[in-house]
Amino acid sequence: MKIDKILLLREELEHLAQAAAHLTFSKNRTNAIIQQENWTDEELERLESLTSRFARLSDLLIQKIMRLIDELELTPDGTVLDRIQRAEKRGWIESSRDLVEIRELRNLIAHEYAADKMPDIYQAVSLLTPNLLMIVPKIQSYAQHLAEQYSLAIGKK
Prior knowledge:
Elements: H1 2-30, H2 41-72, H3 80-89, H4 96-111, H5 118-156
């Protein structure tokens, strides 16, 4: 039912705001150490938190919120790439390549266990975090507008 999906969308938007704030916090805490070659245990913990929060926000955007918006707009589910291409058409990103890179990095984070690759992953996360965070307010605005439209439509019936 549409009303349930609207409520779920609003709930997910709250999670999105929290996840973006947490990622911003982690990014700020790692700016000064990201270029180092060796890290203390505490610094590694900060970097791990950054990568984890990056992956979480990416998943929330692509796997939950974008999918939910598609459902509300009666758009066929399709693949992750389909969702990413629709994000470009909706004006949330300049190029689908941006979100593809974010998704690929998220997959690498989820499956990488080699310690020698982690410095490269930390660097990539640091570089792509601003791109990921720039998408958030665009999706929030779009989703809020969509939720208001459906709420009005349901109220008129």
